[in-house]
Every structure is written in structure tokens, then in C-alpha cells.
Amino acid sequence: MKKALLTVIALVAALAAAMLPGARAEAKELLGAGATFPFPYYSKLFDTYNQEKGVKVNYQAIGSGGGIQQLKAKTVDFGGTDDFMKDKEMAEAGAPILHIPTCLGAVVITYNVPGDPAIKLTPSLIVDIFLGRIEKWNDKRILDVNPGAQLPDMNIATVHRSDGSGTTAIFSDYLSTVSAEWKERVGAGKSLNWPNGLGAKGNPGVAGLVKQVPGAIGYVELIYAVQNKMPYADVKNKSGVFIKPSMKSVTAAAGVAIPDDTRVSIVNTAAKDGYPISGFTWLVFYKEQNYAGRSKEKATDLANLMGWILHEGQQLAEGLDYAPLPAEAVKKAEAILKSATYDGASIVQ
Amino acid sequence: MIKVSFDSIFKTVLKAVGVLMLLLLAGIFVTLVIDSLPAMKAAGFAFFTGTTWDPVFKEYGSLVFLVGTLLTSFLALAISLPFSLAIAIFLGEYFRSGLVSSFLKSAIELMAGIPSVIFGMWGLFVLVPLVRQVEMQFGVAPYGIGILTASLILAVMIIPYSASISSDVVNLVPADLKEAALSLGATRYEMIKKVVLPSARSGIFAGVLLSLGRAIGETMAVTMVIGNANILPTSIFSPANTMASIIANEFAEATDAVYISCLIEVGLLLMMVTLVISMIGRYIMHRMKI
Known about the structure:
The complex is a heterodimer of chains A (349) and B (290).
Chain A: H1 2-19, E1 29-34, H2 39-53, E2 56-60, H3 64-72, E3 78-81, H4 87-92, E4 97-111, E5 120-121, H5 123-130, H6 140-145, E6 157-161, H7 166-178, H8 180-185, E7 198-200, H9 202-212, E8 216-221, H10 222-227, E9 234-236, E10 242-243, H11 247-253, E11 278-286, H12 296-310, H13 312-319, H14 327-338, E12 341-342, E13 345-346
Parallel strand pairs in A: 1-2, 1-3, 5-9, 6-7, 6-8
Antiparallel strand pairs in A: 3-11, 4-8, 4-11, 9-10, 12-13
Chain B: H1 2-43, H2 46-49, E1 53-54, E2 59-60, H3 63-94, H4 99-112, H5 116-138, H6 147-172, H7 175-183, H8 188-217, H9 220-225, H10 243-250, H11 257-288
Antiparallel strand pairs in B: 1-2
Helix pairs in contact in B: 1-11, 3-6, 3-8, 4-6, 5-6, 6-8, 7-8, 8-11, 10-11
């Protein structure tokens, strides 16, 4: 039923797009759907691309899960996801799927403590706060890490995302990586069985609730926190350094060995200057582009768009507070793009 | 001749529309049942009794959401009833026409048309701090969001529905009945209490039932203020979750087949609950009609 629903949504979207004045059958258009987190970046990207290359890209931000479903249903040319497809999902797709990373995202821990003190957190503190084991802001363990900080005798209220989201996926992936107990009790995923705390919908929901409830702590996308001038904590990374989340430290987090298919989680990065709660976001599409009666022209358009995102597109990222890809990831992505085929022949040389 | 054939065409069209509505309802029901079969197979009866909703470890129990939905809806109904009854008597008995009445009537209609997300926003920014003050007085965790806040928002949202139907019904109470009561020396209050309300109660109950249906299905405003905690509530200040809200929150990002199916089964459960409540309501309404 979900698939049918999504198909209907995509059809309506496609119809609406087709009915726009000037859009004729020969007008070049690509259809994509998926992750909401990079949507502002993609909007800017696709708008610029349309102006420069005359190819219209219609991207529907319906969520990563929806994007993958749509791709599998072959109603879109590409999907967008914050959480790379697992081997099982890849097998279900019927044919090989390629992942092209487009930029990096990070999850920051935001809080509402009177006086807005700068707070540093270690992985074990984050785990114990979200498990409900540390209940007060002036807990000795928090004070030990933050000597001199004015922390009140106030209850901690944890706030999490109530809707399934890539943000929760990255955050819980991190917690599962640094804590065996978290992995066993709660695990990682887009929706979790939270042991306590309050749930709120979307980044704005979490941000709103944290601002509303004194003593609250929650997690949001870095970009969202930056643009809304929210306080966020420095987090101790694997090398033992407290890292301030920023575009630079997020890009640095990807400065580790990346596998050839770029399907990798970079949480708890080994990079010394890297912020540990970071992750790639990807566009996904079928490796063999001759399916469901697609033309070679369309396949070429798609490949050109991906190539453009990997180069010209990266310069647009920073202006919008998205962390651009490190050079190594771009190199790997180029190789992936070259492996895309139409009728078995490479699309880009 | 032409008149007769037009009449029969009109009748056929009406019939077709009626049948179509039934087919639509049956279609929705059948689709929900078919799509929740994998969930029924995987979770079985534990789906209705389980209190753990864990998509990571694939354990799906929906009792928490059922309790959340029923608790918020009935609490909202209890809060809204005195207000909607007062409005109904005010508009149906005391100020049947005139400036005050038409102003109040349009205000109520306007309120029914406000999108629920606006109520949610208002709840989050105005009601939540107030509830937090109350919670601090009671010494419970001062979140400000939870069942009480959600019920208050729902109450405000459903008042227009029950109030407008009830005032129409109060308006319809035959004048000779009321005059008879007054001629026997009843005061206006006695007349309302002993004549107007008893003869209008079935209609008032219908309005209440309609508003309850709205409360059960409300999603957006509730999800913004209920706290979305998938834990059985321990008091009316606890954060909780409802059936409509869990579907809205998790459906878009659900990828696993059983997980999606479980969310659809929650939808089926929601439909059944609405059905059962409306059937009970109809029965009570039937009994009330003397």
C-alpha cells in the first residue's frame, strides 16, 4: 500500500510538473525523491543546474525511506538517502545500485541551560544522559568534564525526534558505536524505542521543545543549529580531542579510508580533527541505466548531473552551511560514476 | 415524460453515489486488512497487548497508542462538554438572534475552520508554558507537554463541532413544550433543565459523538504537544503517544515490510475503535429517544 501511495504521489508530482507552461515532452527533466536533510542544498543545486545546463531536476523531499522505495518502484531517476542502503536492501532492489555522496551532515547536541554555558561532552556522558542515568545538570561526571562551568541543580529532560529520520539514524549509529550497552538495549535506526524523554517532530520540533523546556537536551542537524543560533556542545572524539562542530570539522571527519562504493559510516571517526557525529548523504540510482524504457539521453543527463554535483556543486555547499566532500571521497565517487552503464557501455569516460 | 426520466436518472445518480461511498469504506477496510496481514502473522495477538514499540529489534505492541488515543479523546470530551453545552443553551435559548448571537456563531464557525497545525503551534507556545506552571505547583516533571496539554488542545478544537450541533438541536425544541413548562410556573432555569435538555439530549449526544470522532483522529496538533513517548502513561501529566500520531511520525521513513505492515495495522485498529465507539454511541442515542 505504501508503494502504491508513493507512486500516486510521484505521479501527481510528475503530472503537475508536466502541466507547467513551457514544459514540453522534449524538455529535459530528471525526477528524484528522498532525504529531507540535504533538501535546501539540493534545491539550490538543481536550480543552478537548470539555469546553466537547461536540465530541469524535480526533487521531492519525502524522506530517505520513501526515496529508496520510489527508486525501487522505478518511478524516479534517482533517490536521496542519509543512510546508505544495506546489503539486504541492495539485494531487494533487483539490480546493482550506485551511491554517489553529495555532501556531509552532522548531528549536534543542543541544550537549554540557564546562562547558556559552553558545555563539553564525552561519548559516555551522552550515552548516560540519553539512557536517563545522569539526571541532573550538576552531576559530578558532567562537572568533571566541564570544570568551572556554572551548571545548575536542574533535571535533564532529553528530547528526541518522534518522526523516523536520518538524523536519528546518524545519532544512534554513533551511540551504538561508542557504547555496547546502547547497541544492545536501544540499537541504531531511524526510529527507536527510546528509554525515556520527549519526542518532537522534525528539527524545528526538537529545537522548539529544547527552547521551551528548561534543562532540556536534544539533537539536531548542525545546519539547523547554526542557522538558528542555538548553543551546541563540543564532543570528545576517538583521538580524545574535544571538537567543536563546524563545516571544517565535519569535512575532516570524512578524512578516513573510504571504501570504493562509499557506503560507509564515519561516526566516531579516527580523524584527529574530525567531529565524531557526522555522516555522508547520498544520491542513489541504478548502475545499468537501460531499464523501464529509459532513453540513453536521460541516462547521460543523469550522469552529467552527478558529475556536476561532484565538482561545481561542491562550491555551492559551503555557502549554504553544508560541509563539502573531502578530495578522496570525490575521487572515489568519480570512479563509481564511471562504472554506470547504458546497455553495458560506460556513460561517462 | 421528460420529467419522469429525469427523476429516475436523478434517483439512479443518488443511488450510485450512496453505493460508491459504501464501496469506498469497504475498500479502505479491505486494503487495511490485506496490508496488515504480515503484521498479524509476525506479531499475532501480542500486537494488541504489548507495550513495547521497537522498530530496531522488531517488537511491535500498540497498547500504548490505544491508551493514549482513548485517554486524550475522552479527557478532551470531558473538558469540552461544559463549554459546548453552555454555548448551545446560550445560542439556542437565551440569544437566538441578534448581534451577539451572530457574532458568536461566526466565531465558532471560524474556529472550526482553523487548521490543526495552528492549534498545535498555539499549544506549544502558549499552553505549554501555562501547563508547566501548573506542573511545578504539583511537583511533577515540568515538561509542559503530555496528555493534559494534548487534551486541552483537543477540547478547544472539538468545542465548535459539538456546540454548533447542540445549539441547533436546542433551537429545535418545540416552543409549545417550553411554554407549557413556563405556564406551570417553572423558572427559565427549571424549564431548560427539565424540558429543553431532556428533549434535546439525543441530538446533543450526536454532536458529542461527532466531536469525539474528530478528537480520536486528530494528528498534527496532538503530535506537537503530547511528547511522543511510547511509554504507558502513569499520570495525566505524562508524555504519551496516540495511534494517529505514531502513524504520521513513522510512516514516511519505514522501510522494513513488517514495520510498514504494523503501522497499517495501527491504522486498522484506529478505524475499528472509531467504528466501535460510533456503534455504542448509536445504541445509546437510540435508547435516549423515548
